[in-house]
Amino acid sequence: MSTRARLINTITAATTLLTMLLSGCSSANKPAQTLYIAYPIADNEFTQTTKERTEKQFRLFNQQFLKTNPNTRVVTVAYKLNTMKRQIKEDSELNLGPDLILSTNTHLQSFYLDSLISAFPNSSQWTQQYGDVLKNLSIVDDKLIFAPFVIFPQVSCYNNKTIKQPPKTIQELVKLGASGIRIGLSTKTYEIQWTAGSTGAIPEISSLVNKKNQNKPKPKIKEWITWLRQAALYQNIFFYSQQSELVNELTANNLDWITCNSFEALEIRETMGEQLSIAPLPDGVQTKAFATPTIFAFGLGTDSSPSQRALALSYVRSLTNPVGQRQVSLRTEGYLPANKAVDIPNQSSRTLKAYNDSWNDQSLSYIKQWPMITQYLATEQGYPAIDKVLTELSSGIISVDEAVKAFTNHDSKGKQ
Amino acid sequence: MNNLLFEVSSWTGYIGRAAVTWQLILIGCALIADVFIRNKLGTKNVSLIICQAVGPLALLGISIVLGLASIPTGIANRFGLIWAAWNLLLWIELKLIQRNPKDRRALWLRRLVRPAILVSALLYCIQRLSSLSSIGLISVGTLLNTQLALGQLFYSLIGLYLILLASAPIAFLISWISKEGLKISNQSRDAIEIIVRYLIISFGLLAVALQAGFNPTALLTISAGLSVGLGFGIKEIFANFISGIWLLFEGSIRPGEILMIKGEPCRVNKLGLRATFLSRQRDDAELIIPNQTFFTQDAESFTTGENYRRDEVVVGAAYHHEPQQVITLLEQIACQHPRVLQHPVPQAFAIDFAESSINYTLKYSVHNPLDARTVSSDLRQEIWTAFNNHGIGIPFPQRQVYPMEWPPNRQSSLQTQQNPHEHSTADQQDRG
């Protein structure tokens, strides 16, 4: 055996022991416990700026928690959205998974199916603080699989220098475009499906969950798809494949009106300042827009020690109880509280009123169809497949009939 | 930087998890046990592979058994695998070196595979303890008005290392293709190889800098400023570097050429950034001469214009031998030597009516300048033999020493000269 190899092994052993020793010593001066929180950032937005902006929000949340747990070190770890699940799965194989995961409801549902998060203990106590919609989303087999924390409603962001009065209907939106206002729409299904509500296609889309209905005529879906095709033909309506492009174009003054969510509105306001106004999405003549909010929730990791689990529950409790929710909501106009007991001060802000209208008037008006639409579209294959159809439709590659056929016959068996 | 320290220090929080702590203890015990077991096995002449394998395999075995009992062993498993891979690599490397100390495969294992395993293991650990993407965004400072993130810095360093490593084989390949395609000489091939290598490194550095997000205009400005700074600060090194590049492009000194350094033929082995490396034929010593020297001092090259070296042997013959016979004999001797070139034809000349001999010079050429010394020695031996066979004498001055007394005693001196032994005997008799 070479001396060098022996030396390397001795050094490795010494380093390991030293690390353990140092960590033991350092724990005497450092907070007693560490709480690991994982959160995702979209791959194409994974930049230092986005991370800093999110960490700033986390500092706000942490302050609330540290009031009652001052001797805790909260470590937040950002993951790329597309690889987060795989990463956490590998971490969990080594018992190094996070204590808490803050992500969207669909993401967390998928985590739960892969046993990467645990259900909340004493679920009934937790569920009392949520309304029916959030309960339906977060409860599986009478267990609360994640604790909804905040709601990012889908709204419209516009430049109030060029648009004095926001469009209330999609017909007004088209007129606005005809008058020279530059309008940006997304080809992502999740971002554009609000127009399906405005054209009255939501009941037909929700009926597609039942395979037998797929071959029946779908006039409203065709009307919606036709509207999208018409929009693509208008001079001042532009389609983008990435939501981040819409945001960038608005802040660069290349667009005047876009769809956005409340968290993006915060980011846009940093650049546009008072020039930015927020309004609910345009409804149809008879039907509401199907504003699709993003719900962020906490999931409990599976690898925590008993003390870390207690801290994780304490963290969630501190931020989802009415006082905590109100504290967090008052400090920023980025989201709506998930707790039903927290009132939204509509009168204090037009922005908050827009969020409130989006959530309560538009999103919740589709409370019955929502689960079926999620079941039909929100699958691993669903959204990417429909995104492709809508991109090809808006680019003129496929006809309206072909798009309708592809939309109504897509396979919804994929994993949610 | 504080963010990075916070990130790293936060990893200790995982030790609070019992499943993690006990696995770290298991690994620590395995490492310590491995040191003792190796020492024991080492004294019993157990083969190297067994010594290398015992530690990682024991750890893996224990982990698998405990894993079957649903005891968490993920960390111990991964550590065991990395440890086994590392030891296997060391064993392969050692075997290759034992067969041939200059084995190129061992060199590549050491330079490429070993760092690759280390870096991969390190990245894997960081990825598990945190998120590489997130850590990659941590700012480590500002350079040339560019915010440098840890990820960019890491990729830049890896890129730099790979460029330095890959530049040599790529340059060799290009120069070899050039040699085969353009039918150029070995010296030109060597020059092309070095130039291509410098170009790859230069463009590689530029690419790495641009990838790291540096502004090209700022780079140009800084490099201009740096050039001035270098000119004043490390003038000698910079001058040597520029001289090296210049010599390569000029083609006057290239690897493989023969230079006369202080009267000794030396072969150019390598034209480095700072100095030229030559090997001296006489004693195989390696000479390291700053490149700038060739700009400021005379250097005699035997291979720049022609590939042969012209040399000469000077010999004297007695006056009574006909010069034409001697000249013919000398030219014959040179022509018969296998390492003397027939073109240009060896020629002998009578060059001097010296004090005791007519001096002749034999001029000849050899293909390899480094052979000149051996060939001249051979020729001198053959000239002696040929002169002997033909009865030609090589006159040389002879000196006679006369011991003298003061004042001179002519008789005594003559007697001593005639028979020194008698003189000493007579002296003894006188004393007796």
Our Rg estimate of chain B from Cα atoms comes to 37 Å
Query: Can you tell me the CATH architecture of the largest domain in chain A?
Result: 3-Layer(aba) Sandwich
| Strand residue content of chain A | 15-25%
Number of helices of chain A: 19
Overall pLDDT confidence of chain A: 86
- Name the shape of chain B in a single word: elongated
Describe the structure.
The complex is a heterodimer of chains A (416) and B (432). Chain A has helices at 3-26, 48-66, 81-93, 105-113, 123-127, 132-138, 170-178, 189-192, 194-198, 202-207, 219-233, 243-251, 262-272, 306-320, 322-331, 350-362, 369-377, 382-394, 400-408, and strands spanning 33-41, 72-80, 100-104, 117-118, 139-140, 143-144, 147-152, 154-159, 183-186, 237-240, 257-261, 276-279, 294-301, 336-337. By secondary structure, chain A is of the alpha/beta class. Chain A folds into 2 domains: 3-152 and 294-344, D-Maltodextrin-Binding Protein, domain 2 (3-Layer(aba) Sandwich), CATH 3.40.190; 154-292 and 357-408, Periplasmic binding protein-like II (D-Maltodextrin-Binding Protein, domain 2). In chain A, strands 1, 2, 3, 4, 7, 13 and 14 form a 7-stranded mixed sheet that branches. Chain A has a 5-stranded mixed sheet with strand order 10-9-11-8-12, with helices on both faces. A two-stranded antiparallel sheet of chain A has the order 5-6. With 432 residues, chain B is an alpha+beta fold. Chain B has a 5-stranded antiparallel sheet. In chain B, strands 8-10-9 form a 3-stranded antiparallel sheet, with helices on one face. In chain B, strand 1 (139-143) and strand 2 (146-149) form a beta hairpin. Chain B is elongated, with a radius of gyration of 37 Å. The termini of chain B are far apart. The interface between A and B is large, with 44 and 47 residues.
